[in-house]
Amino acid sequence: STCHRMIILKNFSRTLILRDYRTETRSMTRRVLSAAVLALVGHLTFGLDNGLGALPPMGWNSWNLAGCKINESFFRATVEQLAEGGFREAGYEYINLDDCWMSTTRTPEGDLQWGPNFPTGSTLGDFVHSKGFKFGMYLSAGPKTCSLRDPNNRSATGWGSYGYEERDAAWIAKQGADYLKYDAVCGGDYNAPPLNTSFSLMDWERVVVSKMGVALNKTGRQIWYQYGSPYTWNRHGGMCGGGSSSWITQNASLGGVNSFRSGFDMSDSWGNVGEQIGGVVKWNEAIQGQRCAGSCPWPDADCLEIGNNISNINVVESQSYFSWYAIANAPLLMSTRIDTLDPRLRAILLQPEVIAVNQDYAGVRGGPATPPLAKNTGLVWAKPLTASATAANQASMDGLEAAGAAAFLLGGNSPNVTLWFRDIGFDTTTPALVRDLVLRKDLGTFVGSITVALQPSESRLYKVIPHKM
Q: Which pTM value belongs to this model?
């Protein structure tokens, strides 16, 4: 695994962009993109060793769009629309059924049951697989799920997986599940027995997450394991709320997962995007260079809300939203209605060269690349690219270096944003080819920098490849 390496990084300041794009500066180290020095580090078991997780997942999830209004007919129709709309070919792999699919009672033997809105739920796995996708399901680590949806008895328990971890893992494996979203224990569950007895919240959460990971691997089926936003982390403020980064080293392993929510829920608001991505980069900084049992887990900024409310996230913002997720290596899990999706937004979600940035990992996950900018003037993020990604879509690599980088520029109140090649590890005197990955067009050769005029929330996603000297 590439996570069995520590990369010697180049010192410079990094910035965390919050909701209003103000910058909080802190000193840290970053990889020199043109050369990496590798060294073994002490063992920390972050990732679940199940053969999955080399790259962030792509797919669709029902929750942000439908919540508990989801039903079998709508889910099946969405699978059909994704198959017919070119999403499978673009790399979207998992179609995930979130909360509210199950009955609130178990069988006499203790097994989960499909709820009344899923009369033939037991055939959904086969149906999803027949369309060339993988099937995702939802469970909760507590005694009930986070919807708390029994109006007659909100304290009722039994349909959550607390105490049923091995049984429930085996049950979803029989349903054909390839992905599990395992939600955090929710709200009042922490104040009710048996959860307030023998463990601190942090220790308890680590135990329950580990139990499910072991149970999933025991099924013999490869199942991507996503843990929902760690409740104890959110309770301590999270990265966006000023939480201490030391918490990550105490609890980031969570017993081993493939991905985990990095903060609170995403809303259909452009203002929420920067906050969520800020949480991702903080987690990535902590994970970077750690030695993992499997692949290092991917912090998840929550589902893409592109298309759910175009008045709240317009077309320009949607493009920046998608490109920002791509550069951050955040999971690309849509949660939008496919049949009525605006064609302009559909085109964004299918952009091959933007997706390629998200699905490329050269040892460093994307993050802020510039020294601190003046408040609200814009931002620049970057990440190295593998040789294969650098060469992709180039007519010829003659005269170009194998190693390149991707750079994301986001406009603020300043009329221009400049990408300085020194900030992404390239020599300032070396010419570099710059390609616009959204337009899929080479812009030409530049020396030292490239400056672009950007309106607030407008962005560019570039590939930068130095010429050989």
A: 0.85
